[in-house]
Amino acid sequence: MRLLHTSDWHLGRGFHRVSMLDAQREFLGHLLATVEEERVDAVLVAGDVYDRAVPPLAAVALFDEALHGLAQLGVPTVMISGNHDSARRLGVGSGLMRHAGVHLRTDPEGCGTPVLLSDEHGDVACYGLPYLEPALASAALGAEGSGHTAVLRAAMDRVRADLASRPPTTRSVVLAHAFVHGGESSDSERDITVGGVSSVPASVFDGVHYAALGHLHGCQTISERVRYSGSPLAYSFSEAAHRKSMWLVDLDAAGSVEARRVGCPVPRPLARLRGSLEELLHDPAHAPHEEAWVEATLTDAARPHAPMARLAERFPHTVSLVFDPDPAPETGTDVSYARRLKGRSDQEIAEDFVGHVRTGRTADDRERRMLGEALEAARAEDASGEAPERAEARG
């Protein structure tokens, strides 16, 4: 049986205020084309269909298009809710959708009830484990503990109990939305540490032939039988090095797994550039990134004038600007504060302070004079024990 494993669509999410709806629509068209071209037997969507519990109407309309497209292909689809989804909202109409071959699994108590798929070798029991928030799912599942591992173990106990009641030739697949030990995270995943330690051991999925995971946005292999598809699109610059893809998974008669990656369309590449503004504007090495979405980190000692507008002349799709000045050599963190001050006059120390708080723009002549006068007044007060203006009035 051939399965197409995808997850983390995040319909409705933007990228640094840039709408991603067109890119998401392109991906979904690519998914439908892949189902046809690769003769896929079933589609697995491992959570985070939407980006928010209450998605924008345009995202709901896009999801509706995707459901119609999948139903028209006549290929069964199994879909679970993720931590970004509202399980109740996503599950509305699931009874009707089932008749069209779209199986939504959003209720934790249904973990042990599979979608039964069949091929010439027999049945494949496909179990959907929606995102299990420990505080909400622990009691319903009878978990022996209050953390993520405890609730996932309880859910998988139901899966294994159901499998034990089926013929031994039954192959098994689990969809889950969780952070598994060994997975590599990125900046665009919402933290799921609330309710206990977030990551769970891969061993919780022992006893099934394939675990189709969602939540982490990088496509990755935890083991031959436990994999993340990752998100089909990049949603943060921390994903700049990702190759976005889906898993095409073949299960043979004995349940052995063979998986290969199917690439996803790239709406626009991502580039993280670092250097002074002049370097970024003129270095020919940056030419390949001129049409990319750019995150520019400027290392100038003083903030340049209108940096975003100037960067946009060369990189029109600059969407993020970060200031991270390179430290001056003489003020490196490996030199103690006392050593940096040794042998320097009060005037020099005051002028250095002005340069430090203004990120490299040192005091001008007028400011030096003012600093000198203030230091002289302070010395005079220290010597006489009273402020100079009071001493002058008394004289």
TrEMBL record:
Coiled coil spans: none
Record domain Calcineurin-like phosphoesterase: where: 1-95
Gene3D superfamilies assigned to the protein according to its UniProt record, in alphabetical order: 3.60.21.10
Keywords of the record: DNA recombination, DNA replication, Endonuclease, Exonuclease, Hydrolase, Nuclease
Origin superkingdom: Bacteria
Start and end residues of each Nuclease SbcCD subunit D C-terminal domain: 267-354
Region: Disordered, residue numbers: 373-395
InterPro entries (alphabetical): Calcineurin-like_PHP, DNA_Repair-Maintenance_Comp, Metallo-depent_PP-like, Mre11_N, SbcD, SbcD_C
BP-aspect Gene Ontology terms: DNA recombination; DNA replication
GO molecular function annotation: 3'-5' exonuclease activity; endonuclease activity
Pfam families per UniProt: Metallophos, SbcD_C
Record-stated family: Belongs to the SbcD family.
Chain's role: SbcCD cleaves DNA hairpin structures. These structures can inhibit DNA replication and are intermediates in certain DNA recombination reactions. The complex acts as a 3'->5' double strand exonuclease that can open hairpins. It also has a 5' single-strand endonuclease activity.
Quaternary structure and interacting proteins, as annotated: Heterodimer of SbcC and SbcD.
The protein's name in its UniProt record: Nuclease SbcCD subunit D
Source species: Streptomyces abyssalis
The organism's taxonomic lineage, starting at the top: Bacteria, Bacillati, Actinomycetota, Actinomycetes, Kitasatosporales
